[in-house]
Amino acid sequence: xxxxxxxxxxxxxxTQCERLVNFLRVPHLSTGEMLRAAIAQETAEGxxxxxxxxxxxxxxxxxxxxxxxxxxxxQDCRGGCLLDGFPRTINQAEMLDDLLERQxxxxxGVIELSVxxxxxxxxxxxxKREDDSPEVFAxxxxxxxxxxxxxxxxxxxxxxxxxxxxxxSADDIFDRVRQAIRAFRRAKR
Length: 189
Ligand code: ADP
What we know:
Blueprint: E1 2-6, H1 13-24, E2 28-30, H2 31-40, H3 44-54, H4 61-72, E3 81-84, H5 90-102, E4 109-114, H6 117-126, H7 134-157, E5 161-165, H8 170-188
Parallel strand pairs: 1-3, 1-4, 2-3, 4-5
């Protein structure tokens, strides 16, 4: 299965992605991780990306698309994958649809992890990451609302979106995620 997990920063996407890749037995494609790896390896892509990331802004679509396109060609992605952090804009979603279509593939389902904004701020204050100063975090939330939230409508119109309540224990949330996967499987048959 080819699944996309969408959620604002602090929604608990990382935890749910980890469980979901074990459950589905597919590779985890996180563009955030790919970009951090590119920065660590000091590649040209990494150098270009880091200025945007430090400012809490999205990296240009073409750069991210290049990383994803290359990764999707790997053998282990043939049976499916979990996309995390990509697509993040309507433009990226359209580019992904084109890319998959050319390989006679498609997105099977999109899961939205839904968490109220006050809770996101509370969680952010409780954790610490280098790009997580309150100002940068606020900008990442704002960028989610402005650029990524419209994607939900895009996939809703395709009949592929399931919204999952992201409040509660990780186990409870994962139960809901599995229900969404069951619905995608039924739709696929
Ligand atoms: P979060 O979901 O908490 O923002 P990520 O690890 O997914 O964290 O992303 C970290 C940063 O990497 C983002 O703030 C953005 O600058 C960049 N990034 C990741 N994925 C994308 C993408 N699909 N398009 C553009 N920028 C991206």
